[in-house]
Amino acid sequence: DDAEDVSLFDAEDETTRKSKKSKIRHPLASFFHLFFRVSAILVYLLCEIVSNSFIACMVTIILLLSCDFWTVKNITGRLMVGLRWWNQVDDDGKSHWIFEARKPSSRGKTASSDSESRIFWLGLVICPIVWVIFIFSTLFSFKIKWLVVVIMGVVLQSANLYGYVKCKVGNKSNLKSMATNYFGRQFFRQV
Question: Which segment of the chain is annotated as a signal peptide (predicted)?
Fold first, then answer.
């Protein structure tokens, strides 16, 4: 008998299905990580077509950007990549920025998946770049009234980007060692 066990219609066995499901461990957080960002951009692009009210558009965009800032800072960063940051004011009135990164578990595995990490960092990096492009398009098209909205988009999304890069990289000596290690590996790969 030369027949081998093959699943019909490319059906996957139970273990493969479970491993694919486990790639995104927090689907709701992943959705909202991108939802508010993309919604703010879409509202900005389509606002003049849908509504004649600048104030309504501006308020809607700023609310979406604020929801995005809060969601990314307080929820998705912690769940998706294990990073968080905040500002703390001590008794003397001095402001201290605190950046934390979750330590890997005792099994050597991180609690976040590669898919979630990729979604998180791509959303975190691409959207501020889009808002910077909007600054130039606003200036060149002489729509100065939209400049305040676009600057709010850049500020809020860049603040989250800066906070999470500081969490991931740590202090400056850590950044220097990461760059040295990266370029050293690239050099040895070419040789």
Answer: none
Residue written as token pair 């990314």: 72
The amino acid sitting at 31 is F
Contact between residue 68 and residue 40 where contact means Cβ atoms under 8 Å apart:
yes
Contacts of 34 (CB under 8 A, 6+ apart): 119, 123
- 103 vs 86, more confident: 86
Nearest to 54 by CA among 123, 136, 122, 145: 145
Q: What share of the chain is helix, strand, coil (3-state, %, to 5)?
A: 70, 5, 20
What's the rounded Cα separation, in Å, for the pair 170 and 166? 5
pTM for this prediction = 0.72
